[in-house]
Each structure stands twice: as structure tokens, then as C-alpha cells.
Amino acid sequence: MVVAAVLMSGCSSDDPAQAKERQRDYCTKLGSWQDAAHATTTDEADADAGDGQGVRSPESDDTEAAAHAVVEASKRLDRAGLEQDGTDILDDTVNAVDGDIGAEARAVSYCDSSGFETLVGSAG
């Protein structure tokens, strides 16, 4: 009986260390997505000035992979109930990767208030 209680307590979302790890993971992935998305935006602007060929870049693939990773991380935060001040981190993250600058700013603000401001850039 004691073993089951110990095992169950290790999986609890009430564990502050586990909560901080989930938040750090999310903010790391948000920062990676921002880096990839902003690099892709710059590359697209450069390509528009070029020959106009519609070749899919590796950076675009990186952005998609980073977007998927940060959305998955936001789902883990959502399931663990680690949102702050009535935010909806999952919706904000999905909207951010779809190009909503306001949602990106709210996601960045979440990381700032979680203590992981150095892992993300400013929105936009």
C-alpha cells in the first residue's frame, strides 16, 4: 500500500520540481520555435527578392517540427493545470504558431512569469 502511494505521488502535477521542468521544457521549445519561425520569415523575404522558385526549404521543415514540439509541450502544461492568471496556454500556443502575434506575446509572457524569460525572444 505504501509503495503505491509513493509511486502515485511521483506522478502528481503538484510536484513543484516537475512543474518547473514542464515549464522549462515548454519555454525552451517556444524559444526554438521562435528562432526557427523568425529564420524562415527572413529566408522567405530573401527568396521573394530572388528568382521566385517555390522550393520548400529545410528551415520550413525545422519550423514545422518546432511548432509541433511546442504545441505538444503546451498540451502537457494544460493537462497538468500549469496555466497562470487565467491564461489558456494551449490556445495561445496554437494561435502563436499560426501567426497570431498577440498569442505569441501571451506565451512569451507566460515564460517570463515562470522565470524562464531568457529562453524566449520577444513576440514578433
Q: Would you mind describing this structure in some detail?
A:
With 124 residues, the protein is an all-alpha fold. 71% of the residues lie in helices and 0% in strands. It has helices at 2-10, 16-48, 58-80, 89-97, 101-114. Helix 2 (16-48) packs antiparallel against helix 3 (58-80), helix 2 (16-48) packs antiparallel against helix 5 (101-114) and helix 3 (58-80) packs antiparallel against helix 4. The termini are far apart.
Q: What features would you highlight for this structure?
A:
globular; mainly alpha; 124 residues; disordered N terminus
Largest sheet: none
Q: What general form does the structure show?
A: globular
Radius of gyration: 17 Å
How large is the count of helical segments? Answer: 5
Distance linking N and C termini: 52 Å
Could you spell the SSE succession in H and E letters? HHHHH
Measured by DSSP, the beta-strand proportion falls in under 5%
- The helix content is over 70%
> What's the total number of strands?
0
Specify the structural class. Answer: mainly alpha
In terms of per-residue confidence, which ranges show pLDDT below 50 for 5 or more consecutive residues? 1-12
Rounded mean pLDDT is 81
Explain briefly what this protein structure is.
The chain is mainly α and 124 residues long. It has five helices and no strands.
